[in-house]
Amino acid sequence: MCSIPSPSQPQTASRNGAPPPPPPVMSNKIKSAPPPPPPGMSLRNGSQPLTPPMAKGAVPPPPPGLGGAKNLRLVKSTSKLKRSSQMGNLYRLLKGKVEGSSVDVKVSGRKGRVGAASGGKQGMADALAEMTKRSAYFQQIEEDVKNHAESIKEVKNAISSFQTSDMEELLKFYKYVESHLEKLTDETQVLARFEDFPTKKLEALRMAAALYSKLDSITYTLQNWQIGSPVRQLLDKAESYFNKIKGEIDALERTKDEEAKKFQGHKINFDFGILVRVKELMVDLSSSCMELALKEKRDAISREKSEVKCERRNNRPEKILWRSFQFAFRVYSFAGGHDDRADRLTRELADEIETDPLQ
User: Fold this and answer.
1) Which of 170, 163, 166, 167 is nearest to 198 (CA)?
2) Percent of the residues in the chain that have a pLDDT greater than 90, as a whole number
3) How big is the CA angle at 350 (ends 344 and 355), to the nearest 5 degrees?
């Protein structure tokens, strides 16, 4: 065997500066393996370096630059959210019931069509029961069904047979129904437990009662309007209220035929004659404004001799007369006419405006 020169022995260069001769050739029995290339570099012939095999069950090293196992721990995060064991099946069951889906789903470990699965409805009921059996809200609904069953059946029969053209009777019956139903925790949920409950007629009854109550409130307000000086403030309030109700009454005039037909379908003959009453009372209010304006004008004329003319011009009574006339004309257009009193007052008011010496 040839000896290998010790790495500690210095190698001397030749006298002409040429590199030292190569080391003596080693025998074929012992060969020196070249050092592995750095990570990411190829061998001279372009082939990739071989990765040494890993032991069975060993974890591979992290890629360069990721910081090793320390960064792997940062990927995991704690959360209070958990997967539900029944939400997926519950969704598919509900989807099949509502949309009629025919998607195959697994029920109790077997495949079957949702629409045809014998246990589909029962599975949904069981899932819903599991979600709500401890709810105090649903427990209260069950108690309402049990405790108010007799009164609900009584109301059901009363609504089904109710019919009227008397609006006072309508309001009275409406109060009777509400006095029973207002005791329920959730009216919709409770009434759904009673077969063939007339919910649509109940809705029509409420709409009719609410509409008539609103119109009746308008008539009460107009009928009890306080008339008093100064007429300027009276006009301010009257015009403001008129502007408020005019749009609502006009809209109801356009839809009253359709509303009447809908109410009649539930044996409720709504009395839309109350709209005429509203218009009549509005004309009365405008007439009262004209009367007060004329009275204040005459009182002002009686004081003319004691007042300076230029001071009177700052607050001319005829401006109020014209404003009263304008309001009366708007009410006339809204109501579609005037009564005898309003007709007389508008003529009188027009004469005063035309003959006023300060015009």
Assistant:
1) 163
2) 51
3) 130
Q: Nearest to residue 243, comparing CAs of 327, 131, 186?
A: 327
From CA 359, how far away is CA 76, in angstroms rounded? 91
- C-alpha distance from residue 49 to each of 53, 60, 64, 140, 239 (Å): 12, 17, 16, 75, 96
d(CA 115, CA 103): 9
Q: CA–CA separation, 156 vs 154, rounded Å? A: 5
Q: Cβ-count burial of 220 within 10 angstroms (0-12 exposed, 13-18 middle, 19+ buried)?
A: exposed
Measure the CA–CA gap between 49 and 43, rounded to whole angstroms. 7
* CA–CA distance, 299 with 66 (Å, rounded to integer): 99
- Residue 301's pLDDT band (boundaries 50, 70, 90)? confident
pLDDT digits 0-9 by tens, 25-50: 444 444 445 555 555 444 444 444 44
What is the CB neighbour count within 10 angstroms for residue 231?
25
Q: Per DSSP, what are the bridge partners of residue 112? A: 105
CA distance 159 to 145: 18
How many other CB atoms sit within 10 Å of the CB of residue 113?
A: 14
DSSP states along 245-275: HHHHHHHHHHHHHHHHHHHHTTTB---TTHH
d(CA 328, CA 231): 14
